[in-house]
Amino acid sequence: MEWNFQSAEELAAALRAGAVTSVELTEEAIARIERDDTVINAICVRDFDRARAAALDADRARTRGEDRPLLGIPVTVKECYNIAGLPTTWGMPAQRDYVPAEDAVQVSRLKAAGAVLLGKTNVPLMLRDIQSFNEIYGTTNNPWDHARTSGGSSGGSAAALAAGFGALSIGSDLAGSLRTPAHFCGVYAHKPTLGLAPTRGMVAPPAPALPIDLDLAVVGPMARTARDLALLLDVMAGPDPLTHGVAYRVALPPARHERLSDFRVLVVEDHPLIPTGSAVRAGVNRVADALAEEGARIVRRSPLLPDPAEAATLYMRLMLSNAAAGLSVDVYEQLQARAATLTADDGSLDAARLRGMVLRHRDWVEADNGRELHRHRWRQLFTEFDAVVCPITPTPAFPHDHSGGLEDRHIDIDGVGYPYFDQLVWAGVATMPGLPATAIPAGRSPEGLPVGVQLIGPMFEDRTPLRLAELLEQKIGGFQAPE
């Protein structure tokens, strides 16, 4: 039997039934990587010897009667997580030899759950791109079309899943870095509520692995089914034992509903600052139509939705203020000079990004207060709705484009060019207020490329969009292996 495209849930059942061993699953996954990854380049750091040893340990543990959530299941880990004994570079040539001594907290949780770690997946330089390529490990190709990007910054993980390299992966998300690769590669991903899953050890080298509460950024699960997302989130969720875990335990509420017909859904397909491409629009409407067919309450417009343009501006300012924190004094002063030339009425996203990079603390506090107002409006919205369906990016996967600086690139939307980073506004819809968002497959483009959408849920009600994703998977279908 071909095991590489089976879900983690199916693999766990087969392992419990004795239909397969972890050693067999691991050897099959390794063989597939060795055969196919030369072209895709998803697994940038292989750890096959330790994977084989872990698989053998898992089989022995099972014979002793042990049964952990991921016992014996092959998985991959995004390169940005520390794994003791393996390089963590974030794609930075200067850090190619940096090897951490300790595992990231999420890697420790994977191991404690019994997972078999096959290796690490590729990322863009400093995780700052919607593509995954760097000077150390090269370019990751989309398994559906090798001339196109797999997305970023968790593009290696999404490509690995689509290619059958392990049943699960873990990634991170600040600007859609879980959701965009899932959308581009036709797999599932979940951006958890901000703070739900600790990030310690997911840190740029050579910085120490401190238990820091990151602003905007999260870590989260990736899989080929919605149920597998929920399985992996249960492993990842819960406070860091060094800080909040001393006093708190996680207790996520159940999904609001168990049937599609009971869901109240706001469908948003247009953004005031960037158009939605036809292929993505069709994906959003495919999901909306499926919900309507099952009797769900579908609404296309609501005054309860926080102002998307204002939200995008806040998002850019908050995100870029973090990104610029480590810049040299000289570069920072150059940015200050450029920002001083902006006119007061310049409300473009480019202007918001530039202003964000030189944000004073008092202005950051003002922006943070604006974020809290948006969170309050979202709470009000979720008294009337259970989820919001919207795009992840305006287009399916685009051709590799490594030209110039990020600020000089453009994204083609149905034949018209727009600033490259403006496409991040859809990711920011959930990221800025810290809401959970599940990326699901929603069909194909006319060119045969995967198209995904995101299901945004109420804060700390992650099980609601995850359950909606599972029900939609049953209705419209889910992952399909690349042709």
TrEMBL record:
Q: What is this protein called?
A: Amidase
Q: Which Gene3D superfamilies match?
A: Amidase signature (AS) domain (3.90.1300.10)
Query: At the top level of its lineage, which domain of life is listed?
Result: Bacteria
**Enzyme class, UniProt record, top EC level:** hydrolase
Species of origin reads Nocardia speluncae
| One Pfam family linked to the record | Amidase
Could you read off the lineage of the organism from its UniProt record? Bacteria, Bacillati, Actinomycetota, Actinomycetes, Mycobacteriales
> Looking at the keywords, is Protease present?
no
Quote the EC number: 3.5.1.4
Q: Quote the cellular component terms of the Gene Ontology held in the record.
A: endomembrane system
